[in-house]
User: What shape does this take?
Amino acid sequence: MTYPTFELLRSQNIDALKIRVEEYRHKVTGAQHIHLAADNNENVFLVALRTVPHNSTGVAHILEHTALCGSQKYPVRDPFFMMVRRSLNTFMNAFTSSDWTAYPFASQNQKDFNNLLDVYLDAVFFSRLDELDFAQEGHRVEFAETDNPNSDLVFKGVVFNEMKGAMSSVSSQLWHTLCKYLYPTTTYHYNSGGEPEDIPNLTYQQLKDFYRTHYHPSNAVFMTYGDIPAAVHQEKFETRALSQFEALDEVIAVGDEKRYHAPIAVEEAYPIDESDAENLDEKHHVVIAWLLGKTTDLDESLEAQLVSNILLDNSASPLQQALETTELGQAPSPLCGLDDSSREMAFVCGLEGCKLEDAPQVEAMILDTMRKVAEAGIPQEQVAASLHQLELSQREVGGDGYPYGLQLILTGLTSATHRGDPIALLDVDVALENLRRKTQDPVFIQTAVRKWLLDNPHRVRLTLRPDAQMGERIKAAEIARLAAMKAQLSDAQKQEIIARAHALQERQQQQDDESILPKVDLTDIPANLHYTAGSHELLNHYPLRRYAAGTNGLVYQQITCKLPVLSEAQLKVLPYYCICLTELGAGDKDYLATQRWQAEVVGSIHAFSSIRGASDDVQAIDAYLTLSAKALSRNSAALNDLMQSTLLNVRFDEHSRIRELIAQNRARREQSITGNGHSLAMTAACAGMSPAAKVSHQLGGLEGIAAVKALDNSLDDAQNLAAFAAQLQAIHNLVLQAPKQFLIVGEQEHLDSYRDNLQARWPIEPQVKDFKHFTLPPVQETIREAWITNTQVNFCAKAYPTVPSDHPDAAALTVLGGFLRNGFLHRTIREQGGAYGGGASQDSNSAAFRFYSYRDPRLTETLADFDASLEWLQTTDHQWQAVEEAILGVIGSIDKPGSPAGEAKSTYQAELFGRTREKREQFRNRVLAVTADDLKRVAAIYLQAQKASIAVVTHAGQKELVEQLGLSIKTC
Assistant: This one.
C-alpha cells in the first residue's frame, strides 16, 4: 500500500538479506523514499541531503550541527540532545560526508520512533538557524578575558575545535591532501568537515543560503528499514513536512572529475610534535592514488573491489606482500584500499615511515608489482578466494556497531545520492555471479589491472614530509590573524563582541520548556532484559556452548583457553602473541600459504585476551585467551581444520614476519591517539584502581603505545628479535596446556553438523592437573599524568575508585554518569567550553567513575568543571524527570540489540566472567529503582576530591601548565 502523495516506482525481494526493497517518489517535490521492509522491530530512519560544498569552510558540517539546535515546532535550544535523553533509541546521530549530510536514528519502540521522526523532520526542514547557535557550533571570536577588550582575541566554536582535533591525525591530513590533487575540480577537492584555517571565513548568511538550497525535499533521500509499512512513514513525511513544499528547480549534483592526461607527483608537509621528532628523515608518507570509475556502476564497482581484494586483501596478496616486506618504509599506509564513498572511486596504496629520497622508488616498486600481476596473472584459487570474501561480506548480518538496518541503508546511500540504483548495490548476488563468470577468463584480472591502474593516467603520487616547526608556524599564523582582526576593530565593534559573548552565555544558561518535546517514560520500558540463551553441554569432556541465531548461512566459532600464569615480561608480550597467532605460518605452511588458506576458508580469524575483575571484587581477576573465526556454512569443516592448526601448529620461527607485524602494529597504534584520546585518557586515569585497569593501560593504553615504540626500535637487533620470538613461543607452550572450551553460533538446522565437525577434531585429552591460572596482585594507587603527543587539542579525564557491578551502588553510579552529562557537563564542556564532547560514566569492570572531555580547547577549566558538576549535584534540587531521563539512557544502552551472532558471543563472553543472566537482570532492576537521593548519596560517598586520579592527553605547548597542576609528564 502506498500513501496517495507518493508513487511506487518498483519493488524487489532480496532473499539473501531477507528484505523487500521498495522505491517511491513524492509526486510534488520528487523526494525519493527507499523502504527496506523486514521482519525486524528495530526500525531505522534516515534522511539524507546532497550537500556539495565548493570550499573548505565546513559549511555542510556546521549546518549539520546548527540545524539540530531548534526548529519551528520545537523552538528549544537543543532538541537533539534533549531527545537523546528522552528516548529509548538504539541509535541517534547526524553525519557529514564529502557529498551528503544524513540524519539517522533507530528504535525498537514504535512510540519512541514516531517521537524521534517528528523531531528529526522538523529539525531538517524547518530549522531556526539562530545566529547564536551558529556562533556556538561553528565559529566565533571572543576576548580571552570575556569582558576585557584589551585581552587577545581567540577563535571558539564546537566544529572549529572538532576539526582541529580531527586534523591532528596524520592519516586525516594525508587523505585530505591527497583528495586536493586526486579531485582537482569537484567537491572532493575540499574538506567538507572544514579546515581550521578556513572555518572562520564562513559567514552566517552563507550558512543560511546553503540551507535554503540544499535542505529541501527535492534534494532529499528518505530511507527506512523495519516492520513499519512504507505508507505509515509516508503519511508522517507528508503531514509533518512535504506538504509545505513545492518542487525545487535547482538540481544539486557532483559532476564528472576532469581527468589528468599524465600522472603527477606532489609534495606537501605535515606538522609533527617535537616529542616525536627523532629520526625525522624516516617519517615521510608516500601514497599513490588512481581515480577509477563511478560508484553507481555496479559492475565497475564490484570489479574494482575484486582487484583491490586481490592486490591488498591479506599478506599473501601481491601488493600487500610487497608493501609489508619492502625496506623502503615502516608499514603499509593506513589509506591502502579502495574508496567507494565518492561519486568516482579511488584506489590508494603506499607506505609510511619512508625517506624523502625514496619516494620515486616506492612508486616504482608499486608499479613493478602491478606489472608482474598484469603479465603473469593471479592463480585461479586466489581469485576464487577474493570472490569468496565478497560473498561473505554481502551475506553477513551485522548490527554490532550500527544497527543492521542502518548498515544496509548506508550501503545503498552513496548510489542514491548520485541518482544511481540503490537496489542494485543491495542485491549483488546476480552481479557477483556475472563477475564469477568473467573471472573464468584467465586474463580477466590482468586486463583489469592494466585498465584501471597501469594504463590509467589519472594517477597522483603524494609525499607528505614531517616538519617539526610547522605546528608553531600554524599557531603563530592564527595569533597574527587574530591580532590583525583586533587591530581593525572599533571600540563599538569590541563592545559588540563582548555583548554577543554575554548573549550566548545567557542562551546557554536559559531553561527551555522541555515539555513541548515528545518523550517516553519508564512505563515504555520492556519488563525484562532480552537474553540470548545457549546450550550448556560437553564435547569430549570440553565445555561447549551452542547458540541458535539467524546468521544467514554463516557459522561463528571460538576456542577459549584459560589464561595461564605469566611472568611480568610475558604479560607485556601478550598483545603481540595475540596478533602473531593468526598472522604467522602453521605447521608446514609459511605465513603466505596460511594467509591464502584463511582467505579461502574464513571471513576473519583473530585472537584476543580478556582480563577482567570479578563482578563482586575487581581486585580478584580472571582471564582468558580466545581464538575467534567466522565462515560460510559450507566451509564449517575447513574452518575447524584452520582453527585447530592455528592454535596447535603456529610457528614462531618466521622472524622477519614477526618484525613486520610489530612495525605495522606500532604504526596503527600511533595513528589511533587523536581519534581515541578520551578513551586513552580515561584508561590512564583508572590504571591505579584495579589490576585489570592497570593491565589495560599497560597493554592497550598510552603506556602500551609507548611500549610498542620501544619494542619496535629494539627489534632491529637480530638477537633481540630472536629473544622476542622465543618469548612468544614460551607463552604459546603455556597456552597449549590450558583448559579449553568452545562456542558455536549458527542457524538451528546446522548446529548439530557444526558440533560434529568440531568433535571430530578435538578428541578427549587428559587435563593438566597442576595448571596454574593467571593472577595479578591487587592495585590501589592515585594517578596524576599528562601524556604529550601530536595534537592541537586536549583530552581530559578524572577518575574515582567506586564499586563493581554486583554492588547495590553500581546502578546509581551508572545513572549518575548520564545525569551529570545531561544536566551540567554537556552545557559547560561542549556548549560553553567548545569541546566536541564531554561527560561522565561508571565503569563497573574497573570499579571506577570517570569524567572525560574530547577534542577540548581547554584543560584546567575542564578539570574544574568536573568538580563543579559535583557541587551542582549536591546544591541543586533536582526534578524527577532529569533522573528518569538518565535512567532511560542506561536502560537503552543495556537493551540495545546487536547482531544475532554478536549477541550470542557477548553473552558467552559475559558468562565466562560470571556475569550471569540473573546478575544482569538484578543490575537492570536496580537501575530502574534509582532516585535523586541515591545520586547525591553515592557521589558523596565515592567521588571525594582526595581520591581523584587525573590523566590528560595534550601537546608540548602545555608542558608548563600541566607541571603546575602537579602532573607527571609522559610521552607516547
User: Anything to note?
Assistant: The first helix runs from residue 59 to 66. The chain has a mean pLDDT of 94.
